[in-house]
Each structure stands twice: as structure tokens, then as C-alpha cells.
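User:
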Amino acid sequence: MKELILKQIDVFSTSPFCGNPALVATGAEGLSPEEMQRVAAEMNILESTYVTRPHVADADYRVKFYTPSSEYDFSGHAMIATCFALAEEGIVTLCDGITTKSIETNAGLMTVDFHFKEGDDSYGSGGPDSTPLNSGGVSGALKRIMIHRSIEQFVPVDAAISEIASTLGISEGEIAMTGLPVEIVFNGVYQLVIPVHRSGTLISMHPDLIKLKLLNLRLGVQTTDVFTTDSLNNDCICYSRHFSPAMGMWEDLGSGAGGSSIAAYMLRHGVITPQAAVMEQGPETDKLSRVHIDVRETDGEAIAVQVGGLAVTSMTRTATIHDNDEIIVV
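Assistant: Predicted structure:
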């Protein structure tokens, strides 16, 4: 018999049951891949992670990622959820300033920065730009968790704008009026990035997700990210929605990978200059995810992006895995 503590952590928000949820088990050493998959299926949250000891010398931890049906290589929002759990449980001790950790995934080593302000006045109150946290007995405010990425592959799209617009259920002019191309960005997965003119179009958009899945499979992409610079809040540089029907997830409430690809795309096409900024994501305008990005030009074609945000624990449960493979969650 094995017991696991499972946390539902809501990412890109400081309010429980907002943002994008992920399930995290930090003490997963000794669990088999089959057991990890069964727990993920039983909990039925789109993305679950398990933390174990690393297999490579340069890593501090190893993280494995699962959907209810299969293991996959990497997820930005699930990684942020995992790092938040590590900090909240004191497994990672934060110091004033930036604490950096290296995390092993199936997609390679990931560098993650924890931005922590010791003794910050916002401790105990939170708000949209900090999460109260007690790290090793020291109270303070977690300002953000940021994952380092490098994006250097941009591919033209072999599909007519009319077909893309029809699949999304919007007019072709909404894309054409931006003056920007539809492009595929490689960020560990291939992502179709589509600009639209108005936020109202994006809010009311109802894509044909079956057709979008078929389009994604034909183009060889895993996700579709539709964005507009007509953001809903003045402190954000864009508003976006993230669809993954080709991966079995219809719409993601907030995507770190999507946010970093959009940021790199915007810098590449001169929409923004190198900067740190906030993006807003999601279909529900009263529960928008807030994704932090820091995008910088590097030598050659590569664009360095840090992407991340905040998180909050909304629920803690215990899973008992019996020798007969029965799983009981309380």
C-alpha cells in the first residue's frame, strides 16, 4: 500500500478555483509509471505531475507529466504548479531575491527562477501580483515563478486564411486586418499562432474543434493559439485563447507554452520590443489567467523567453494505492 498527498494548484491566478488547475504529487518516489497513470486517470484533471529524484547529475528534481490517458513530455502551467508546491511545502527553500533550480523532464533540463520578496508587506493579503508564502519559516511574497525557454523555429503555414477563419468561426477580415501572418512556432511542441483584430471576436469565438483537430493534424501542430493586442485590461499586452484538440484537450484555461510562443512571435514581427510584461488568457473573462513573460532578442534567430506566473493551492487530498491496484482518494 502506498499513500500520496495530492494538491490541486491553480496556476496564473492568486484566487482558488480560478486560473488553470493542475494536480501535483511531490513525494512520488517509488511509484511506477502505471501507478502514476492510474492516479491521473482517477483524479481526471487534465494535467498531473509527479516529483521524484533526478536521473541526471545537474538536476535538482525530476518531474513527470500525465494526462488522464497518457504520459507527455512537458507542460508550462503544470511545471509552475509543481514548483509552487515544492516552495509551499518547503522542499525548495526560497531566499530574498531569485532562487534558481534545474528540473529534469522528458523534454530535457528546465531552468526555473523563483522570485521571492522576504518580509513583503503584501504577505497575508496576496492580490493579483503576489502570493503569500512561508518558506523555511520566513514569511514573504512569491512574486512569480519563471521558466526559461529559447525559441528559434518559425514555420510558414500551408493553409489558406479562409480555411483557418472558417474553422475558428470568425471572418477572414479579422485575421487580415492585423497585417500579421499566421505562423507555426516550435516551443517544445509545434504551435499554430493566429492574430485577430478585436478582443470581442476572441471572446465570442466558438471554433469547430473537430475541424480544428483535423487541421492541426494536417499541419503537424499540437496546439492553436489565437491572440489579439486588443487586451481586456490595460496592464496586459495581449489577450489569447489556447486550443489543443489534437492532444485531447479542447481548450486550456492558461498556457505557459502558448504565452511564450505568442511573446516570441510578437517580438519577431515588431509588435512589441524586448520587455517584461503580462498577458491575459482564457475563455471566461471574469477568471482570466495572468501569464508573465520576459522576452529578449538573442544572437541569430533565437528569442529568449521567460514565462510563468503565480499560483495558489485550492485543494489537498490523499490517495491510497492498494496492492490490488485499487485507488481510494479522500
